[in-house]
Amino acid sequence: MRALEDRYGRVATDLRVSLTDRCNLRCSYCMPEEGLDWLANERLLSDDEVVRLIDIAVTILGVREVRFTGGEPLVRRGLVDIVQRTAALAPRPELSLTTNALGLARTAPALAAAGLDRVNVSLDTVRRETFLEITRRDRLDDVIAGLEAAQAAGLGPVKINAVLLRGVNDTQAAELLAWSLERDYHLRFIEQMPLDAQHGWDRAAMVTADEILAHLETRFSLSPAVEPRGSAPAELFRVDGGTGTVGVIASVTRPFCGDCDRVRLTADGQVRNCLFAREESDLRGAMRDGASDEELAERWLIAMRGKRPGHGIDDPTFLQPDRPMSAIGG
Ligand code: SAM
Ligand code: SF4
Does ligand 2 come within 6 angstroms of the Cβ of 30? Predict the structure, then answer.
């Protein structure tokens, strides 16, 4: 077994696999209302190709956790089969899914039976009009049904990821936390990042971790959670001295690049050593040209050596990556 180590001593053991760049929502911080030019089918990895690359990552390169994402991974037809084949690898990786939960009410039992361990559901508000304003689709009820089904299927602890937008849902943070605590969902707020397809991100308009915490503290008392954070991006807080927690992922104002243990595989088979990387390494082309598992693993190791020490969002010279979050895999 070799390690996906970079020049700064960080070792990637957590692989994010994007299964599609397509989506059935249109969150304003992610993509424009009309959607994007989706990847052509022949550029997408087939189910067999995805599983082969995950197999290499797990059995040769020491990856221990695999998270499926997108775009919206539930729109990928082969998802349950891919999960099942990944769960059969030895050593078996931890398996999770980041999803908007549309359709999860139907598929949660099959995903759990296939070996999925956990889900992270994206939900920014529990108000119907605000949900429609952010996602441009009137589907809040489906998300709530998906959350309930995930919990009933044992895909827990069910986490919720929320992005706050100034003037839209930023004053609803405490309401969303109360709602999540009541249902035993683990809520984490993510600072908005410059990864939208429209390049509309504005540092000055971004709701910061400090603001989020100040808003939550108008209703709850927060104390730092005792467990060490390790490579987890979320800073965790205990709520009102009880067992409930809330997380804040302050990628912009409190970056955690020094502890990063992640690597990404896009739906078209490119390795990205960082969400904000400006270069990718093409495994799909090499694979279709007949590369062996060893050769693909070697390419992957080389791709990791180019990982930068940090994303530099706050640098004046920062350049947004060419591909949006939905194409990279969030
Ligand atoms: N469609 C799935 C979902 O929404 O969970 C998976 C893909 S989505 C790109 C993954 C995560 O990225 C979601 O939690 C979403 O809220 C988050 N996200 C998307 N655009 C973002 C941005 N500009 N800044 C911060 N988080 C973002
Ligand atoms: Fe779709 Fe997820 Fe992007 Fe929303 S954040 S548009 S659900 S990919």
Answer: yes
